[in-house]
Design brief:
This protein is mainly alpha-helical and about 250 residues long. It has a single domain, classed as Ferritin (Up-down Bundle). It contains ten helices and no strands. It has helices at about 1-25, 35-60, 65-70, 90-115, 120-145, 150-165, 175-185, 190-205, 230-240, 240-245. Helix 2 runs antiparallel to helix 5 (about 120-145). The mean pLDDT is about 95.
């Protein structure tokens, strides 16, 4: 059970850690000052939640690895994040669409984890729900602004959705790890979370006058350590200091 709980916790952490790094790339480059600050704060929220989860994952593993060890001393194949969060930022509509799709999944997931039999996951989710609620509201408002704005903003938002949709199926895959923890009452079932995701996406896209992409081929494998080429570049930047100066601390 500890092996599957470690893997599951690592999956939750890696999603947030990688997305945090992606959003941090906008720091100093946001389209307006308010959004520059908003994205930086969102990145810090994700990083804080990732750190809590990595610390817990290290405790569950029981091999003495810290959150820094897990963040900086694993290679690409040892990361368990979905492929969605490692996709490049692109333009601002692309960044917002990626966050919106993740937020629509992340909020109901955190809400469901409040009922977990794992008290530590409940505590982490309790703090995360407040942040995830704001994140979803922020990305939803921007999706509506883009979709129901100018012809160009509408086109950019639709293109982003079309490009990213293939990565959404992986959010709800039920493998052996997921099923074992569902049975133990630790992880929530994916079905209700997918239903909440669909409801949110349909509602927001309707208001935004955007078309929901058709479900077709879904790119999976990130949960098993098979990633796109983009993750390697992220890790090369994110892990550089720790790799170059092992044990360095601020």
């Amino acid at each position: 059970m500890n092996d599957t709980r470690f893997t599951y916790t690592l999956r939750l952490a890696d999603d947030l850690l990688v997305l945090s790094h992606r959003l941090s790339e906008w720091c100093g480059h946001g389209p307006v000052l308010e959004e520059d600050i908003a994205l930086t704060n969102r990145a810090l929220d994700h990083l804080g939640e990732a750190r809590n989860l990595l610390q817990y994952a290290g405790q569950v593993e029981g091999q003495g690895r810290s959150d820094d060890d897990l963040a900086f001393l694993r290679n690409e194949r040892q990361y368990r994040n979905v492929k969605l969060v490692e996709q490049p930022n692109g333009d601002y509509a692309h960044t917002i669409a990626r966050s919106f799709l993740f937020d629509a999944y992340h909020l109901p997931l955190m809400q469901a984890l409040l009922k977990s039999k794992d008290e530590q996951l409940v505590a982490i989710a309790g703090k995360a729900v407040k942040e995830a609620t704001y994140h979803l509201r922020h990305s939803s408002e921007w999706m509506v602004r883009f979709g129901d704005g100018t012809d160009e903003s509408h086109q950019r938002a639709q293109t982003a959705l079309d490009d990213l949709w293939t990565f959404t199926g992986e959010l709800f895959v039920e493998d052996d790890v997921q099923k074992e923890l569902e049975k133990a009452g630790i992880a929530p079932a994916s079905g209700p979370i997918k239903a909440a995701f669909d409801s949110t996406v349909n509602e927001v896209l309707k208001e935004a006058t955007l078309k929901r992409p058709e479900d077709g081929f879904m790119a999976e494998g990130g949960r098993d350590g098979r990633h796109t080429e983009h993750l390697g570049y992220i890790l090369a930047e994110m892990q550089y200091l720790q790799r170059a100066y092992p044990g360095a601390e601020w």
